[in-house]
Write a sequence for this structure.
């Protein structure tokens, strides 16, 4: 009885965390689209770079929530197949986050260098 209740709570929590991750990615995509349309009206290199950074930040945060949801999902009576899938998903999402973070750092440095040169 208690085990079933805990399992249900964890599954609902997983669904909630998964939804938050999806919402973050969706909101980020919408905000980025709005900013991109503004940049198209007055195009600048800095405008495009800051737009890319905005999307990258939302993607990175959304991926973290998705990974957390996957971890929650395997905490309830995991099978070896589920653990294997979690491992593969974790490696892929961690890799994506690593490259997104590296790209964001490079973009921030480029935006900072451009701002210094214009001053």
């Amino acid at each position: 009885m208690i085990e079933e209740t805990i399992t249900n709570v964890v599954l609902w929590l997983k669904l909630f965390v998964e939804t938050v991750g999806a919402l973050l990615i969706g909101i980020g995509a919408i905000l980025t689209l709005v900013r991109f349309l503004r940049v198209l009206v007055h195009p600048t290199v800095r405008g495009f770079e800051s737009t890319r950074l905005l999307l990258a930040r939302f993607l990175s945060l959304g991926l973290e929530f998705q990974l957390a949801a996957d971890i929650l999902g395997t905490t309830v009576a995991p099978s070896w197949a589920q653990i294997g899938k979690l491992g593969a998903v974790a490696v892929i999402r961690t890799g994506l986050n690593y490259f997104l973070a590296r790209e964001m750092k490079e973009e921030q440095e480029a935006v900072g260098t451009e701002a210094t040169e214009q001053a």
Observations:
- The chain has one domain: 2-114.
